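Issue 218. Parser rejects a valid record. Input:
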Amino acid sequence: MEKFITLTGIAAPLPMINVDTDMIIPKQYLKTIKRTGLGEGLFAELRYDEHGNRKSDFVLHKPPYDKAQILIAGDNFGCGSSREHAPWALLDFGFRCVIAPSFADIFYNNCFKNGILPIRLPQSEIDKLLDDASRGPNATITIDLPNQEIRGPDGGVIRFDIDPFLKRCLMEGLDDIGLTLEKAHHIEAFETEHRTRRPWA
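Output the parser choked on:
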């Protein structure tokens, strides 16, 4: 998993509440277990009409937001089913950070397991970031994870809270497999002792 330390990028505004995982990545895209290629289906029902044509007025089809790495979203983002394809689709499109007033718990934790930083902020702070994100080419903000700060294009700073363990996992690029491999020497020592004490097993 790619480490997350600092990120400077375009922030795209999507001030919709209750964006569920089916809206993030519709069910017809769930046939794959690969994490790549899902970016094309991200927000498909918002991005394409019934004939598969791009909706030019959707924010992610407008420059510079088509290259956005940060999403400023509404309350209760990622609600609905627990599909892990939702963070996969966001990551494949290019998003490394989602900022919202609240997230569904399973989606929130799935983000950390896939290298995406979800940040919870009060609506008043979200409104400031939505204003920053409305600036087109100047909608660049910086996410500083070590210092837990968001810096806007005008130099304003917003601090955010994060669980220390989840912060370490992102900064060190540790998913569940990586965390297990940290204990590899303990596992090997146990297996060696187990074979010695119980050779019949």
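Fixed in the parser; the record now loads. The two ends are 35 Å apart (CA to CA).
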